[in-house]
Specification:
- The structure holds 2 protein chains of 2 kinds.
- Chain A is an all-alpha fold.
- Chain A contains 13 helices and no strands.
- Chain A has 2 domains: 56 residues; 252 residues, MetI-like fold (Orthogonal Bundle).
- Helix content of chain A is 75%, strand content 0%.
- Chain B has 2 domains: 59 residues; 222 residues, MetI-like fold (Orthogonal Bundle).
- Chain B is built from 12 helices and no strands.
- In chain B, α3 packs across α6, α7 crosses α8 and α11 runs antiparallel to α12.
- Classes of the chains: A mainly alpha, B mainly alpha.
- Chains A and B meet through α2, α4, α5, α6 and α7 of A and α1, α3, α4, α5 and α6 of B.
Chain lengths: 315, 310
């Protein structure tokens, strides 16, 4: 106490410093709480989104819903043409985007020399990832539908979604390839392999998991993509199925389905949302629940796959 | 005799094989180059299609009227093509989205990068990725069926189709983009800078605000700009929840069409190929492409130019 009386200024200072430290520590805690709260509310939003769709659409989760065509009567309307259409469109998308994307990614990582050609290609790839999806729809409308005369067909839609998916596949291929150490390539060259043998037998094989992650994420995005397919003029009311791709007679494969009219799940959902009757909104919720479960499963698989790759591979 | 011939034939067949191999290698390299160059082709095709369809449109409508008129009535007898009526809707919804997404995204990024334990981060990041994966048509349903009714309870005069609900949901949609891009740039700040701040007695919050955020500011601003570009190009949420009536308004409680939702509403109707209605969506699309392109270029430039080099 005596000391305090002797040096009041310092003690006062010390106390104000302590108060300041307390204040700063409190701010620290407050921010940590705010951060936790924000992340928790984002999680809750995601959960509410899932639950809302599933609860709203629950009455329509019947077998009939999957095997019926759309109809004017909401109780008997189904998504048969939509899920068949979505599957066929995605089939086209897959077979176009995956080989092209992997080839482009391999070229940019393994072959491209540092010159203006590869610079231009790289700028273009990163640019394409930022172009709004509806612009791809306009491109497809002008190019595929009218200039190439493909019409409002499954082929047009599949190609459009392939363009959207391409940057995702390219980027994931490049990342996967970049993770492969140089000595793997050197070992293959040392035994006399050509560049393509190195790339095909080693580089692509080892980056398989990373590429697959990108492909799954890209396909998940393609399932839910609506705007570009509306833009090319997909019909919203389709009460027929495209010709089957596989036939019993030789040559067993039939490509007529490519030029068939179609609808896809998100467009069917959009159509039902736009109706005034509440019963259609239930159908929309059920369709939305199916879309969101599919995309969540695919994205979840991709996240898990990436996590496993990161954990497992130690070169 | 035989021993002198043998090596000769071996060498010649090996050379032939080499030649074949070289040709194959060249062909494969060329095929791969073509696939990569396809990206350039797509970009050129986008610009070509939009411009070539927009040129006849601009022969009907002068560019001056297009940019200054505030009425967009392509379906009425007196036709007006003032893109401002659509841009106002685009800007309003984008602005609302940013009011929601910038604080939430930045807080999430700071928390994940500076505060969260390893376990929290490993749980939160997949959740953000799942949120990115939600299709926009589902977000649109969410805006119309859940968010707007909630807002109507607070403000009963709110019409069913309004930009407020659409903007808020769009904001939720772009939070993960801002969060992950901003977090990446914060994590790139070297540990030594944090340790320096901690050694001076700074708290985590002080370090995050005074040291990490300024050091990562270029990445954070680039994240905002890329998020704006995302919001400007977003289609389904506004097409479903904001109404499709082109109105020149910045009032969030009204409904209005954006550039994107106009394109959707025209595409849903019967389109006469080559008519002015058909051409108008390409003019609108060109405007949208230019807006997003400028934003993307700006974002990349900021990230490149102001990146602190460690």
């Amino acid at each position: 106490m005596v000391k305090n009386k002797k040096q009041p200024a310092v003690i006062k200072d010390l106390e104000s410093i302590r108060a300041m430290i307390r204040r700063h520590k409190r701010n620290d805690l407050i921010f940590a709480a705010v951060g936790m709260f924000v992340i928790a509310s984002l999680t809750i939003t995601l959960l509410v989104l899932f639950l809302d769709l599933i609860l709203d659409g629950y009455p329509r989760f019947t077998l009939d819903f999957f095997t019926n065509y759309p109809s004017r009567k909401p109780e008997i309307a189904g998504i048969l043409s939509a899920w068949v259409g979505s599957s066929l469109v995605l089939l086209v998308t897959f077979f176009v985007a995956v080989p092209l994307g992997i080839a482009a990614g391999v070229y940019l990582e393994e072959y491209a020399k540092k010159n203006w050609t590869s610079d231009i290609i790289e700028i273009n790839v990163s640019n394409l990832a930022g172009v709004p999806s509806i612009i791809y729809g306009l491109l497809a409308l002008g190019l595929f539908v009218y200039a190439f005369g493909l019409g409002q067909s499954i082929l047009s839609a599949g190609l459009t979604l392939a363009l959207l998916m391409l940057p995702i596949v390219i980027v994931s291929t490049r990342e996967a390839i970049r993770a492969i150490p140089i000595h793997i390539r050197e070992a293959a060259y040392a035994v006399g392999a050509t560049k393509w043998q190195v790339v095909y037998d080693h580089v692509i094989q080892y980056s398989y998991g990373g590429i697959l992650t990108g492909v799954i994420i890209g396909m998940a995005r393609a399932i839910g993509e609506t705007a570009p397919i509306i833009t090319i003029g997909a019909l919203t009311f389709i009460a027929f199925l495209p010709p089957t791709p596989v036939t019993v007679d030789p040559p067993f494969l039939n490509f007529e389905w490519l030029s068939s009219g179609f609808t896809v799940l998100p467009i069917q959902m959009f159509n039902w949302i736009s109706r005034p009757q509440h019963a259609f909104h239930i159908n929309a919720a059920a369709t939305g629940a199916i879309i969101i479960i599919l995309t969540a499963l695919m994205n979840g698989a991709a996240i898990k796959l990436r996590y496993n790759i990161r954990k497992k591979i130690k070169w | 005799m035989n021993t002198s011939v043998m090596p000769q034939t071996i060498i010649s067949t090996r050379l032939a094989k080499n030649f074949r191999r070289n040709i194959m290698e060249r062909m494969i390299e060329f095929a791969l180059l073509c696939s990569a160059a396809f990206a350039v082709f797509v970009t050129c095709a986008i610009v070509y299609v939009l411009v070539s369809e927009a040129i006849p449109f601009f022969q009907h409508v002068s560019i001056y009227d297009f940019l200054t008129d505030t009425v967009w009535t392509p379906n009425y007898s007196i036709k007006h093509y003032g893109i401002m009526a659509l841009i106002s809707g685009t800007l309003t919804t984008t602005f609302i989205a940013l009011i929601v997404a910038v604080p939430l995204g930045t807080i999430t990024a700071i928390y994940l990068s500076e505060f969260a334990s390893h376990k929290v981060r490993e749980t939160a990041k997949p959740i953000l990725e799942l949120l990115v994966g939600v299709p926009t048509v589902v977000f649109g349903y969410f805006a119309l069926m859940l968010v707007t009714p909630l807002l109507q309870k607070i403000y009963p005069d709110l019409p069913l189709f309004n930009m407020l609900g659409a903007g808020i949901v769009m904001g939720i949609m772009i939070v993960p983009y801002i969060a992950s891009l901003a977090e990446d740039s914060m994590r790139a700040v070297p540990m030594a800078m944090r340790e320096g701040a901690y050694a001076m007695g700074a708290t985590r919050f002080q370090t995050a605000i005074r040291v990490i955020t300024p050091a990562a500011i270029s990445g954070i601003i680039a994240a905002y700009i890329l998020a704006i570009s995302r919001a400007v190009g977003e289609t389904m949420i506004v097409a479903i929840a904001a109404g499709q009536q082109p109105t020149f308004t910045f009032n969030p409680i009204e409904g209005a069409a954006t550039i994107t939702s106009y394109i959707v509403s025209v595409a849903l109707g019967d389109l006469e190929h080559g008519g002015i209605g058909y051409q108008s969506i390409f003019a609108a699309g060109l405007t949208l492409l230019i807006m997003t392109l400028l934003l993307n270029i700006l974002g990349h430039m900021i990230r490149k130019k102001y990146r602190e080099r460690y």
